[in-house]
């Protein structure tokens, strides 16, 4: 059956988003989207022992953009960076019990913002060079 | 944040059926079920019901003769009949069509389809308040222009167009005007004779009638052809057995609107003015549409740094308040509203739109509840926003 509106899980995260806010002096920072397109998402991470110790987000966008941001931060929190890097847009959508077809791009933004933040950390710590932030890593594959 | 107040502010999407209309028309769902085309007494009773409704709708829009009202199944169908019917019937006279840039998609899309079939389409720009540029309109009119379409009032920004002036420009050149009055009829005075309208679209549900009925007024001087072919109902212009309940209900709703419109619009205008006054006190919020020349029950805004679908969902989920938005994120195409772009808003500005349309179940006591809910919603979403 075609999905009508948002799932209960999406509405639950929209109404009660987790990990909202800003981390001062984050270890990694990712920002994706464009307010012109109606979505802008930023993710801050704090890393300890190669794990995401803390994560926060701020989002300008529709209901699914906000729910996706909340969900992706919840999925990433406490995971190792390598594990978090493997979280895909599909994982996020599945955890949210699906998104309407025209809203699937929102789940891309969530995973992308997370990966950008991780790559930012890796660049800062010298694990990768800035030019390596494109390509494979951007598709959520293991480096 | 959980104040359940239950306030419906989306009367342009759907109106509840007026209980008096339901009571009046219910018999057509029960014992008076006839086919108006049948010659026996059951059929004749049904025919009489349709003709009574026709006279009532004619009165609402001041049509000189009820036989110039054609019933359809929706306002969209009425506009399709007006545009396709006039363009195809008069294609020998010219190939040019003219429409304002802020027409409803039920006008723009048939126009675009006609364009694919070889017609030329020009869109007339509007100013930042949504008023049609009369100079541009006049300069686009030529003897090739078989039809010009300008809406009476816009449902997204509430702006009321200078229809009488537009009609004068169109008629000065001996041309014809279609007006979509879906948002305006029953809210402000619409008079096809006074305003000089050749084709007029009206909706049943927008005036608290049943869904499933619309009407087109047709000036008898303008020949149009049908879109639906079949049994020759509605003077051959709209085939298909009449939806008796919806049409009879539409008629009764039109009668009640004719009687009650002035008082009800005055009542809603006062509530609406209160809402606009209070909501504009929130930081970085702007009224969209014309501040004075607007529908009496219509309030529309844009908020910077937040997105309209989130506003709609938050008001619904936390406060049980239903509004509408022109944000891209709430549309099927993910394109921002063409109306908001036509009044000159940037994409990012158009994303933050919120539309409130008031109706029978609203009262002044709701103003502080609505204002409080909107204020908190905006605050909450701005806290979430990186902008």
List keywords for this structure.
heterodimer, A: 143 residues, alpha+beta, Sufe protein. Chain: A, three-stranded antiparallel beta sheet, 19% strand, B: 387 residues, alpha/beta, Aspartate Aminotransferase, domain 1, Aspartate Aminotransferase, domain 2, seven-stranded mixed beta sheet, 12 helices, 39% helix, globular
What structural class do helix, strand and pairing data of chain B support? alpha/beta
The CATH architecture of chain A can be named as Alpha-Beta Complex
In this structure, how is the largest beta sheet of chain B organized? 7 strands, mixed
Give the uncertain stretches of chain A in residue-range form.
136-143
Shape of chain B: globular
Strand order of the largest sheet of chain B: 2-8-7-6-5-3-4
Q: Look at the helices and sheets of chain A and give the structural class.
A: alpha+beta
- One letter per element, helices H and strands E, the order of chain B comes to EHHEHEHEHEHEHEEHEEHEHHEH
Query: What is the tally of beta strands of chain A?
Result: 3
Describe the oligomeric state of these chains in a short phrase. heterodimer
Based on CA atoms alone, the radius of gyration of chain A comes out at 14 Å
Q: Could you name the CATH class of chain A? A: Alpha Beta
What is the number of independent domains of chain A? 1
Q: How far apart lie the N and C ends of chain A?
A: 38 Å
Shape of chain A: globular
Strand numbers in spatial order across the main sheet of chain A: 1-2-3
> Low-confidence parts of chain B, pLDDT < 50 over ≥5 residues?
none
Number of helices of chain B: 12
CATH architecture of the largest domain in chain B: 3-Layer(aba) Sandwich
Q: Biggest protein-protein interface?
A: A-B, 24 and 26 residues
């Amino acid at each position: 059956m075609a999905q009508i509106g948002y799932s209960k899980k999406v509405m639950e995260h929209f109404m009660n988003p987790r990990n909202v806010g800003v981390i001062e002096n984050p270890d990694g920072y990712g920002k994706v989207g464009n307010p012109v397109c109606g979505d802008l998402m930023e993710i801050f991470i704090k890393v300890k022992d190669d794990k995401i110790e803390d994560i926060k987000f701020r989002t300008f966008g529709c209901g699914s953009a906000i729910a996706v941001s909340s969900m992706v931060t919840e999925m990433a929190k406490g995971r190792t960076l390598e594990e978090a890097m493997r979280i895909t847009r599909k994982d996020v959508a599945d955890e949210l019990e699906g998104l309407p077809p025209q809203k699937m791009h929102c789940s891309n933004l969530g995973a992308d913002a997370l990966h950008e933040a991780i790559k930012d950390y890796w660049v800062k710590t010298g694990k990768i060079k800035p030019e390596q932030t494109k390509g494979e890593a951007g598709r959520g594959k293991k480096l | 944040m959980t104040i359940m107040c239950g306030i419906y502010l989306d009367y342009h999407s759907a109106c509840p059926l007026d209980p008096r209309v339901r009571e009046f028309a219910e018999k057509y769902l029960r014992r008076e079920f006839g086919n108006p085309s049948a010659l026996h007494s059951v059929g004749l009773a049904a025919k009489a019901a349709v003709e009574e409704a026709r006279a009532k709708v004619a009165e609402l829009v001041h049509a000189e003769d009820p036989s110039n009202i054609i019933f359809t199944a929706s306002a969209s169908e009425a506009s399709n009949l007006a545009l396709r019917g006039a363009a195809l019937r008069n294609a020998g006279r010219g190939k040019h069509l003219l429409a304002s840039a802020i027409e409803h998609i039920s006008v723009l899309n048939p126009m675009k389809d006609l364009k694919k079939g070889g017609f030329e389409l020009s869109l007339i720009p509007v100013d930042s308040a949504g008023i049609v540029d009369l100079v541009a309109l006049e300069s686009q009119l030529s003897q090739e222009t078989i039809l010009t379409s300008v809406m009476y009032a816009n449902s997204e920004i509430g702006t009321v167009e200078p229809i009488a002036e537009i009609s004068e420009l169109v008629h000065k050149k001996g041309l014809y005007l279609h007006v979509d009055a879906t948002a305006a009829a029953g809210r402000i005075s619409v008079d096809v004779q006074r305003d000089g309208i050749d084709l007029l679209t009206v909706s049943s549900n927008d005036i608290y009638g049943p869904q499933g009925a619309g009407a087109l007024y047709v000036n008898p001087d303008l020949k149009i052809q049908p879109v639906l072919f079949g049994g020759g109902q509605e003077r051959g212009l709209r085939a298909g057995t009449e939806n008796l309940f919806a049409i009879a209900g539409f008629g009764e709703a039109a009668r009640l609107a004719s009687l009650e419109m002035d008082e009800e619009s005055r009542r809603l205008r006062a509530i609406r003015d209160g809402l606009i006054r209070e909501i504009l006190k929130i930081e970085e919020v702007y009224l969209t549409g014309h501040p004075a020349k607007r529908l009496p029950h219509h309030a529309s805004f844009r908020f910077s740094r937040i997105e309209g679908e989130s506003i709609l969902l938050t008001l619904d989920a936390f406060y049980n308040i239903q509004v509408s938005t022109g944000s891209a994120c709430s549309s099927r195409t993910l394109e921002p509203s063409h109306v908001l772009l036509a009044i000159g808003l940037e994409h990012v500005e158009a994303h933050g739109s919120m539309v409130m349309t008031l109706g029978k179940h609203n009262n002044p006591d709701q103003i502080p509840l609505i204002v409080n809910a909107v204020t908190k919603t905006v605050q909450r979403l701005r806290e979430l926003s990186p902008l």
